[in-house]
Amino acid sequence: MRGIHMKKISIFFSMLSIFLLMSGSVNVKAATSSPPEVESEAAVLMDVNTGDIIYDKNANKPLAPASTTKVMTALLTLEKAKLDDKVTISKVPPTAEGTSIGLKEGEIYTVNDLLHGLLLESANDCAEALAEHVGGSMDNFVKMMNERAKQLGANNTNFVNPSGLYEPGHLTTAHDLSLMLKEAIKNPTFVKICRTQVYKFPPSNLDGNEKWVSTKDELIRKNSPHEYQYALAGKTGYTTLSKHTFTAAAEKDGHTLIVSMLYSQSKQFYFDDAKKLFEYGFKNYKPIKLYCKGDEVASYNVTKSLSVPLIATKDIYYLINKNDYKPNLSDNDIKNNLAPKITIKSANLEKTSFKQGQEILDSDVTVKGKELCDLKLASSIDREYKGILPTSASYKNIKPFVLALAIAITSIFLITLRKYIKFKKKQYILRRKYDNITQ
């Protein structure tokens, strides 16, 4: 009897071992830690590579952004102006309400100086000076801000001023604010300024006084109680009606996340909550690169004799939950499990000319059979269509016998034409002689 029980136990453990071996490949479900609770009225945790929202609380609720508005002001300035542009302060910026660095009418500073005042000190007079310089007027700059927001997909945003001072209708959302910071951190100058601890303005051309500004972002400020080693860039905000607002980016092991929070009751809350959200994102999620910008990812038969190699025009990522995979799996193993696929949308390019690097085709990227995103594909060769035969920078795509046949036909035609001309010329000479004799 005991032998039978031992045999059953042995069979059980054997089956268990087989199961464990089979399950040790890719997918392993484990408990995902719950996201932290945040105090602010609205909050978002966004993955930068994919744009995926990892956590949201009232993500699309319009609220007053306060000085996080200055992210857009800085973005437009960096896109439209040069850092060494000279800006002469008009009579308007010195009258700006709220935080300022005391600009005076007639002072001259560079765009770089004013950007430091804008992003570090959160100076409203710097915001208005930059708005006038870039937009020509405050109203036109605000129009530019709203247009740029729509281009970024920030469709629930409406700006009324460049500084973030509370005004009716001056609104954004935690999601929209994240989109704006996502675009801003692509610019290394924006990140560099945000990471600056202290900046000294040159002496004023009017009175020689020097202005000093320092960062108010405690995730970046050295030795602050909230200093965060992975903090990349950020912008704080506050008005009595908007309450505290904050947007920040952090990077760890090549993974970049953005946190945006609106209508928080205190700095203590939003700095702590931002760090908690970042840690939650880094611990539980990871972007997997499926395709690299510039890599050959497919080919397309333009004609029967010409196949064009196609390259990706941007990096494509897929965000995974780390708890769904064994920790020792490589990114390549995970990518293979995701089974990404590029499906080219049909197009007739037979009579089309294009250059190397030119976008020529659209495609869909799918992961495990589900559509992920669109991807534009570019040609890796030049191709010129001339009506009869296409010519390409890469003649290796034209079969040799086709080229040889074309040369042979051309040669025979030229030889025949030459003989014909010679024959006609001979006939003409003989006819002239005959005419002379008969006369």
Care to give the gist of this entry?
The chain has ten helices and 18 strands.
What is this structure's SSE topology?
Blueprint: H1 2-23, E1 42-47, E2 53-57, H2 70-80, E3 86-88, E4 108-110, H3 111-119, H4 124-135, H5 138-151, H6 174-184, H7 188-195, E5 198-200, E6 212-214, E7 231-239, E8 243-252, E9 255-264, H8 267-284, E10 285-291, E11 296-303, E12 306-312, E13 316-321, H9 331-338, E14 340-344, E15 359-367, E16 370-379, E17 383-384, E18 391-392, H10 400-438
Antiparallel strand pairs: 1-2, 1-9, 3-4, 5-6, 7-8, 8-9, 10-13, 11-12, 12-16, 14-15, 15-16, 17-18
Descriptive account of the structure:
35% of the residues lie in helices and 25% in strands. By secondary structure, the protein is an alpha+beta fold. The protein has three domains: 42-284, Beta-lactamase (3-Layer(aba) Sandwich); 292-392, Peptidoglycan synthesis regulatory factor (PBP3), Domain 2 (Sandwich); 399-439. It comes from Clostridium manihotivorum. One of its GO terms (biological process) is regulation of cell shape.
The major beta sheet can be summarized as:
5 strands, antiparallel
Total number of strands: 18
- How much is the radius of gyration in Å? 33 Å
Which structural class fits the helix and strand makeup? Answer: alpha+beta
* Contiguous uncertain segments of 5+ residues: 1-29
- What is the CATH architecture assignment of the largest domain? 3-Layer(aba) Sandwich
Q: Order of strands side by side in the largest beta sheet?
A: 2-1-9-8-7
Q: What is the count of helical runs?
A: 10
Question: What's the average pLDDT?
Answer: 88
CATH topology of the largest domain: Beta-lactamase
Beta fraction of the residues? 15-25%
CATH class of the largest domain: Alpha Beta
Helix content: 25-40%
Instruction: Give me the strand/helix succession.
Output: HEEHEEHHHHHEEEEEHEEEEHEEEEEH
CATH superfamily grouping of the largest domain: DD-peptidase/beta-lactamase superfamily
Measure the end-to-end span: 139 Å
Total domains = 3
Tell me the overall shape. Answer: extended
